[in-house]
């Protein structure tokens, strides 16, 4: 103990004292502390003996604080609050980060990989803003964005290629078995074409069938690629999607590629963040994790 620092009463006794002052009842204080009623009474008796004064008046069904007890507990509470604040300040603050992605990128690629992210970076609270609208780094408080298109995306931004857009056709293996390979005979006419907002089917069919082909008159249109892919997994028809969106489903046998054809449309997926980020360290960590996971 530092020289000149007065001897302190039992800290355990002080803690019990503070709890008892809130309940004014030994039994209720004992329940909060997880000890016996007798242990609480013993701690209070020991503290009073150590201080040389009474802290409580014992009444038939309750306790009442003495004048000394009332004055003492106000200061003891402040002391415990200071200890709690000092302890809290030792713990690292959670690092918050907002990432803006398209709904399809969120559902088909990011969410399945979040367990790996949280295991690698348990101290980062990630907020995922899934929207087709172009988020603003300033007004939406976005730290990192995954943007689809071609750079440049704006002044003062760091841009790195995350995924090349390689469009492939996919369908449920069960549907392919039922209807036959779509690239044989006139089998394509038997399949519904599942469209998304990009509407790549005309370009894809032109590339897959340079001599022309009769496609099915059945078309189902979705505003999200992820919905078209979900419909393909459910055996509703043929969908087009970026290969990296459907690779997990292909590996798991939920989808298959009935065509070798690949379509590149000149727009890719980029990782974009301000050159002067608001939270430099977590931004660098999340960028690094995304690039590693994408590779």
From TrEMBL:
What GO biological process terms are annotated to this protein in UniProt?
Answer: DNA-templated transcription
- InterPro entries registered for this protein in UniProt: LysR-type_TF_proteobact-type, LysR_HTH_N, LysR_subst-bd, WH-like_DNA-bd_sf, WH_DNA-bd_sf
Q: Name one Pfam family in it.
A: HTH_1
Kindly state which keywords UniProt assigns to this record, in alphabetical order. Answer: DNA-binding, Transcription, Transcription regulation
**A GO term, aspect molecular function:** sequence-specific DNA binding
HTH lysR-type domain location: 9-66
Domain of life of the source = Bacteria
Q: Family per UniProt? A: Belongs to the LysR transcriptional regulatory family.
The cross-references to PANTHER family, in alphabetical order and at most eight, read: GLYCINE CLEAVAGE SYSTEM TRANSCRIPTIONAL ACTIVATOR, HTH-TYPE TRANSCRIPTIONAL REGULATOR
Q: What is this protein called?
A: Transcriptional regulator GcvA
